[in-house]
Design a protein that fits this description.
The complex is a heterodimer. By secondary structure, chain A is mainly alpha-helical. Chain A has helices at about 5-40, 40-50, 60-90, 95-130, 145-175. Helices cover about 80% and strands about 0% of the residues of chain A. Chain A is elongated and about 75 Å long. Chain A starts with a helix and ends with a helix. Chain B has a single domain, classed as 434 Repressor (Amino-terminal Domain), CATH 1.10.260.40. Chain B has five helices and two strands. Classes of the chains: A mainly alpha, B mainly alpha. The interface of A and B includes residues 176 and 178 of A.
Chain lengths: ~180, ~70
């Protein structure tokens, strides 16, 4: 007989890890938003530098845009972690069919994170170089290792979602054999 | 399904209750009830072996093939 207890316990632990991640990102977003809005100039300089452009005095409007982009990023990752936590909870409760559906949702969210990652690079480049002299502003499309990593994660998540669906069918089959 | 489970008949012949059989072969009454009513996808060989041992019968006494177009 198959003993799924070890996998179920490990899934329960992973659900707790997801909760820690959600709390961490929530705190990061709150603190970032608080400091960003209280000192727009410093926030603009920090975000422009993080986007790979120097600090050339980012105006208030583009700084808001950069803060917005960063918040959408964090919001998306929080959503991914919430859905992933649901996935691990369903696995720990021994609900493979529901887990298969949630795994598909995680995969879809990762593809959305990838698309937003590419789009936000372009939007970020425009916002970060808004204060540059005319002719030096840029609109960049960057596909680097972060995007490739997310694409790889999304690909694996999609494959795992299929595996989960197959596993749920097999589990149902196993339950119906006496 | 064209496979019909005749466990009820064999149990009646042996004058044994399904609760007794479930206890002796180590499966739950619920699972044995599902097996009796034929609401299962399959039977493991070790379950079949345990039932045959307890009821002193052959697998053929427990299972019967009835083609769907027989009636």
């Amino acid at each position: 007989m198959i003993n799924p207890q070890r996998a179920l316990q490990s899934a329960s632990r992973l659900a707790h890890v997801m909760t820690v991640g959600i709390v961490f990102l929530g705190c990061l977003a709150t603190v970032g938003l608080f400091f960003g809005l209280s000192d727009l100039q410093a926030a603009g300089a920090f975000l422009a530098t993080q986007a790979g452009y120097g600090d050339h005095g980012v105006p208030a409007g583009p700084t808001f845009a950069l803060i917005g982009i960063a918040m959408v990023h964090i919001g998306l990752w929080i959503t991914v972690l919430i859905v992933a936590r649901r996935l691990f909870r369903q696995i720990s409760l021994g609900l493979p069919a529901a887990a298969a559906q949630t795994a598909r949702r995680v995969a879809m969210l990762l593809w959305i994170v990838l698309a937003w990652g590419i789009l936000s690079q372009s939007l970020g480049s425009v916002a970060a170089t808004w204060g540059y002299p005319e002719g030096q502003r840029s609109l960049a499309i960057a596909i680097g290792s972060p995007q490739i990593s997310v694409a790889f994660a999304a690909l694996i998540a999609s494959f795992l979602a299929h595996a989960f669906a197959l596993g749920a069918e097999l589990w149902q089959d196993h339950q119906e054999v006496i | 399904m064209p496979i019909v489970v005749r466990l009820d008949v064999v149990l009646a012949r042996r004058k044994m209750t399904s609760r007794d059989l479930a206890g002796r072969i180590g499966i739950s009454e619920q699972n044995l009830s599902l097996l009796r009513s034929g609401k299962v996808r399959g039977v493991r060989f070790n379950t079949l072996e345990a039932i045959c041992k307890e009821l002193d019968c052959q697998p053929g006494d427990l299972l019967e093939f009835e083609p769907a177009d027989a009636d």
